[in-house]
Amino acid sequence: MNKGIHIYLDGADLKLITKWAKHPAISGFTTNPSLLKAAGVTNYAEFGRLATAAALGKPISFEVVADSIGDMNSQARIINKWGPNVFVKIPITNAIGVSTLPLVTRLAEDGIKVNVTAVFTTMQIYESMRALIHADDAIVSIFAGRIADTGCEPEEFVADAVRVFRTNPRIRVLWASAREVYNVRQAVRVDADIITMTPALFDKVAQCWGKDLTEY
After folding, report:
1. Model confidence pLDDT, tens digit, residues 119-164
2. Sign of the torsion angle spanned by Cα atoms 35, 38, 39, 43
3. What's the pTM value of the predicted model, to 2 decimals?
4. CA dist 17 → 14, 21, 147, 164, 211 (Å)
5. Cβ–Cβ contacts within 10 Å for residue 1, how many?
């Protein structure tokens, strides 16, 4: 596997974060509200602080759960205080399609590390670039797996993002919602900075990557 791409583990299990934080192949962690719900997390702030510590200084992303821009702003500033390795995930639009990028700009200008998530289109990529022009450290998450679910080629969108952000090394492009081992090859091929994987998918990569097909 190309050593240039960073693997972030996707999950909300505190025990797994504690375990995988020590693994040299895992560079960071991501969570989302669906994963928190599935893991039975009832106290987000407590979980966030514990998970941040468990990550051992590696980047970890927590998403706002509000849908109004004002509440997103308040939550983002609270989440940011959980630790210096925290990135605040802001979906690029709320549930009714209102852009959150003006908020992203304000947060970035205030020194908050932002992970702009749920990016699907080329237009959203360019809009994110403008919103993050003053960011010191940011991630843009392209929902490659869900793009592929529509029958579109996800590599094209991630490659577009890489071209747009390559001039700004402070912004990293993340291949999100990986579904299979081959997604790693695709992400490497378009020079994405990060790919997220579930623990199960990471185990599969470790077991199957480069395996002789005749032997398999």
Report:
1. 999 999 999 999 999 999 999 999 999 999 999 999 999 999 999 9
2. positive
3. 0.95
4. 5, 6, 27, 32, 27
5. 14
* pLDDT tens-digit map of 15-41: 999 999 999 999 999 999 999 999 999
Q: Is there a contact between 59 and 85 (Cβ–Cβ < 8 Å)?
A: yes
Parse the chain into domains and list their residue ranges.
6-207
Joined tokens for residue 12 = 């909300």
The CA-CA-CA angle for residues 158, 161, 167, to 5°, reads 140
Backbone angles phi, psi at 30, to 5 degrees: -135, 150
The rounded distance, in Å, linking the Cα atoms of 71 and 49 is 20
Query: What's domain 6-207's architecture?
Result: Alpha-Beta Barrel (3.20)
